[in-house]
C-alpha cells in the first residue's frame, strides 16, 4: 500500500511537471492581463512540486529563463526571477527572512527593463513579509510604494488591482485607521467585477460598510451592506451575502431596530454554520443574546450566550469575550445572581484590558518602529551630510585638477606648436640636404658619364691609330687622357657629398693607404673600369691595376672581388 502511494505521488509529480513546463511556453508574448490566471496556477504548481523536490524551483525557473532568452523575451525572464524569489519566500520565508532580499533585485531589474507589473507584485510580497514579521513601519512604507505604483495602472492592465487595494486597506483597518482603510476599499469597490476579481470587489463593498459602522455613519453602512445583499449580477456571492446580512443585522442592533436585526442575525448564524465559519456565527450570536436579554427573553438569551461561548472556544477568538462578558454579567444580574454577575464584570474588565493592551502594544510597537526609523533617517542624513562634504571637497579637488590639466594642455599645445615649427624647419633642412644630395649625385653621374663617353672616344681613336699615323689623332688622344685639375677637384667634392663617411672610415681604419690609393678606392666605389680610372687620374690602366694590387696587399685581401665587397660595405 505504501509503495502504491509513493508511485502515485511520483506519477502526479511528473504529470504536474509536464503541465508546468507547457504553461510558461503559452505565456510568451502575451500581455499580463491575459495570462494572470495561468501565472497564478503556475505559482501554485511550482510551490507544490517544490515541496516534493527541493531542487525543482531552481531547475524550473532556469528552464523558463533559458526559454525566454532564446526567444528574446525579457518579461518572461523577469517572471522566472519573481517566481523563484516568491517560491523560496513562500516555503522558507518564516525560517530564512533574508530571502526577502531577492525581491529587491527583481524590482531593480523590472525598473531597468520597465516591466511594471513584475515590480508591483514584488512590492506587495515585501510589504506582506514585513507585516508578517510585525515590522509595521517598514510594512506601511512599502504599502505606500505599492499604492503609488497601483495609481499608474489601469484595471484592465492589472487584474489584481482589487486584491492589492484590499490588502492595503486591511492593514490600515487593523490599526483602526478607518478613514484611510475606507479610501482604499472605495478604490477597490469601484472596479468592474470580473471572473478574476469579483470576490475582492464584494469584500471591499462589505468592509466599506464596516468602516462606516466604526465611524458611526450607520446610514451609509446600511447602503453598502444592501449592495452586497441585493446583488443579482452573475458575480453574486451567497457567502458574502450571508456575511453582509450579519453586518446589516449588527447595524440595526446599533440603531435599536431589534425587529429587523433578529431575523438577520439568525440567518447569518445559519449561513455561518453551513460554511463552517464559527467566528462569524459567534459575531452574530453575541448581539442576538443581548437583544433577547433586553426583551427579557432570558432563556433564549442564555441559549445564544452558550452558543457564542462554544463558538469562541472552537475558534480561540478570545477578543470576542470583550463583548460577550458584559452580556453574561447582565444576564446573571437579571436572574438575581449578583455575585456571579460581579465575577463577569471583573472578567469583562480583564478581557477589555487584554484587548486594549494588545492594541496598545501594537500601536506602541509601530510607534517605536517609527522612532527607530526616524533615528535611522537621522543617521542616514548625517552620513549624507558627510557624503555631501566629501563630494564638495572632491569637486574642489576636481576643479583644481581640471584647471591644472587645462594649464598643462595649453602648455602642451604651445609646446606642440613650437615643436611642430621646429620639425618643419628640420624637415626643410632635410629636404634641402636631400635636394643637394640628389643634385650632387646627378653631377657626379654626369662627370662619370663624361669620363665613360671620353673613354669610348679614346678607344675609337686608338683603333684609328693602328691603321693611320695621323698626328692630329695623336694630339686629340693626348688631350683626352688627362682630366683637368678643376674637374678632379669638383669630382672629389661631389664624391664627399654623396658618400660623406667613406673617406673618414678609410682614414680611421686604414691609415696605411696613400692619398693616391684612397683616390683609387673612391673611383672603385663608383664602379668605374680601370681605363676610366686611369683617364680620370691621368695614368695608365696598368698603373691602376698595380695600385689595386698594392691596396689588396696592404689590406690583406686576396682578390679583386673581396676588395669590391669591402668598398661596397663602407659608407
Q: Overview of this structure, please?
A:
With about 575 residues, the protein is an all-alpha fold. It has 24 helices and no strands. It has helices at about 1-25, 30-50, 55-70, 75-90, 100-115, 115-130, 135-150, 160-175, 180-190, 200-215, 220-230, 240-255, 260-275, 280-295, 300-315, 320-335, 340-465, 470-480, 485-500, 500-510, 515-525, 530-535, 540-555, 560-570. Helix 4 (about 75-90) packs antiparallel against helix 5 (about 100-115), helix 12 (about 240-255) runs antiparallel to helix 13 and helix 16 (about 320-335) packs antiparallel against helix 17 (about 340-465). It is rod-shaped and about 170 Å long. It starts with a helix and ends with a helix. The model is unreliable at about 1-20 and about 475-480 (pLDDT under 50).
Residue share in β-strands: under 5%
DSSP summary, beta strand count: 0
Number of helices: 24
Largest sheet: none
End-to-end gap: 107 Å
Structural class: mainly alpha
Overall helicity: over 70%
What would you report as the Rg, rounded to the nearest angstrom? 55 Å
N-to-C SSE series?
Answer: HHHHHHHHHHHHHHHHHHHHHHHH
In terms of per-residue confidence, which ranges show pLDDT below 50 for 5 or more consecutive residues? 1-19, 473-482
Let me know the average pLDDT.
Answer: 80
Outline type? rod-shaped
Amino acid at each position: 500500500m505504501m509503495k502504491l502511494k509513493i508511485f502515485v505521488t511520483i506519477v502526479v509529480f511528473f504529470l504536474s511537471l509536464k503541465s508546468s513546463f507547457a504553461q510558461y511556453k503559452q505565456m510568451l508574448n502575451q500581455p499580463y492581463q491575459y495570462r494572470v490566471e495561468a501565472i497564478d496556477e503556475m505559482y501554485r504548481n511550482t510551490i507544490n512540486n517544490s515541496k516534493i523536490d527541493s531542487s525543482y524551483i531552481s531547475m524550473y525557473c532556469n528552464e523558463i529563463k533559458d526559454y525566454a532568452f532564446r526567444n528574446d523575451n525579457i518579461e518572461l525572464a523577469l517572471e522566472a526571477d519573481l517566481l523563484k524569489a516568491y517560491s523560496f519566500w513562500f516555503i522558507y520565508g518564516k525560517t530564512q527572512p533574508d530571502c526577502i532580499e531577492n525581491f529587491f533585485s527583481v524590482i531593480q531589474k523590472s525598473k531597468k527593463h520597465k516591466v511594471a507589473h513584475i515590480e508591483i507584485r514584488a512590492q506587495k510580497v515585501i510589504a506582506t513579509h514585513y507585516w508578517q514579521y510585525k515590522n509595521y513601519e517598514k510594512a506601511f512604507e512599502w504599502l505606500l510604494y505599492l499604492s503609488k505604483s497601483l495609481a499608474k495602472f489601469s484595471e484592465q492592465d492589472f487584474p489584481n488591482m482589487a486584491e492589492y487595494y484590499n490588502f492595503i486597506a486591511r492593514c490600515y483597518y487593523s490599526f483602526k485607521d478607518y478613514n484611510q482603510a475606507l479610501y482604499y476599499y472605495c478604490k477597490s469597490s469601484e472596479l468592474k467585477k470580473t471572473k478574476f476579481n469579483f470576490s475582492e470587489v464584494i469584500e471591499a463593498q462589505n468592509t466599506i460598510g464596516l468602516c462606516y459602522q466604526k465611524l458611526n455613519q450607520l446610514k451609509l453602512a446600511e447602503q453598502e451592506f444592501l449592495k452586497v445583499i441585493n446583488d443579482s449580477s452573475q458575480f453574486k456571492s451567497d457567502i458574502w451575502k450571508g456575511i453582509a446580512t450579519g453586518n446589516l443585522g449588527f447595524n440595526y442592533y446599533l440603531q435599536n431596530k431589534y425587529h429587523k436585526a433578529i431575523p438577520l442575525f439568525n440567518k447569518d448564524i445559519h449561513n455561518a454554520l453551513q460554511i463552517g465559519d464559527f467566528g462569524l456565527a459567534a459575531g452574530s450570536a453575541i448581539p442576538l443574546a443581548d437583544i433577547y436579554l433586553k426583551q427579557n427573553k432570558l432563556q433564549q438569551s442564555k441559549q445564544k450566550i452558550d452558543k457564542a461561548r462554544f463558538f469562541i472556544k472552537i475558534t480561540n477568538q478570545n477578543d470576542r469575550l470583550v463583548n460577550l462578558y458584559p452580556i453574561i454579567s447582565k444576564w446573571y444580574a437579571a436572574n438575581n445572581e449578583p455575585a456571579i454577575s460581579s465575577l463577569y464584570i471583573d472578567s469583562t474588565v480583564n478581557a477589555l484590558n487584554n484587548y486594549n493592551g494588545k492594541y496598545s502594544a501594537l500601536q506602541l510597537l509601530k510607534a517605536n518602529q517609527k522612532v527607530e526609523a526616524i533615528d535611522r533617517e537621522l543617521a542616514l542624513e548625517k552620513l549624507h551630510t558627510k557624503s555631501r562634504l566629501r563630494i564638495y571637497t572632491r569637486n574642489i579637488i576636481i576643479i583644481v585638477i581640471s584647471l591644472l590639466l587645462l594649464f598643462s594642455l595649453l602648455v602642451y599645445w604651445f609646446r606642440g606648436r613650437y615643436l611642430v615649427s621646429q620639425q618643419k624647419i628640420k624637415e626643410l633642412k632635410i629636404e634641402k640636404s636631400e635636394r643637394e644630395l640628389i643634385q650632387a649625385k646627378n653631377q657626379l653621374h654626369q662627370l662619370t658619364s663624361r669620363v665613360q663617353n671620353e673613354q669610348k672616344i679614346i678607344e675609337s681613336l686608338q683603333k684609328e691609330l693602328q691603321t693611320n699615323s695621323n698626328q692630329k689623332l695623336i694630339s686629340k688622344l693626348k688631350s683626352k687622357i688627362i682630366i683637368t685639375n678643376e674637374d678632379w677637384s669638383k669630382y672629389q667634392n661631389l664624391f664627399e657629398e654623396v658618400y660623406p663617411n667613406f673617406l673618414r672610415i678609410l682614414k680611421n681604419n686604414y691609415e696605411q693607404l696613400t692619398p693616391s690609393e684612397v683616390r683609387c678606392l673612391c673611383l672603385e666605389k663608383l664602379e668605374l673600369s680601370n681605363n676610366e680610372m686611369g683617364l680620370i687620374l691621368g695614368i695608365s690602366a696598368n698603373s691602376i691595376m698595380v695600385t689595386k694590387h698594392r691596396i689588396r696587399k696592404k689590406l690583406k685581401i686576396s682578390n679583386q672581388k673581396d676588395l669590391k665587397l669591402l668598398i661596397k660595405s663602407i659608407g
